[in-house]
Specification:
Length: 172
Amino acid sequence: MKSNTTIILLLFLFSTISFAQNDLESTTILKVGNNLPAFTTQSLSGKTFSSDELKGKVVLINFWATWCPPCKAELPLLQKNIYDKIKDNKFVVLCISRGEKDDVVKKFIEQNKYTFPVYLDSETKTYNLFANKYIPRNFVIGKDSKVKLATVGFNKEEFEKMILLIEKELKN
């Protein structure tokens, strides 16, 4: 009887993991190898930014929200280990707040003393070109405008690998 219960639990666990993995994959619209879609977004200061400005550059696009615990864990590392350290005129960081109003985002950025560029996607129009569920999400775009990496959630080891990929892409 005990072995039947164990087998049932293992089957349940594997099916849950398989479903979760399939769900993550199915919610990622922009996949590795795809071209960067055309989009415009607005900075916290009100300046319009177009994806056309990214041609020939390595880009990190990060989608996040002020209420998201994994985002709150990732953003300080993004500030310290990427934005403050990787200084290259061919590298652009776009931190895009998903589904929030500018006053909420401004307050959060000021409280945390972040200096990376922040953009707003209150209606999730830009986000919906990349994914349809879950944050944080990171997309590394190469100089050829193709997606080199697409991640979901925050994992420190994966984050470190992303930094290495950015550095490698800048050398290409």
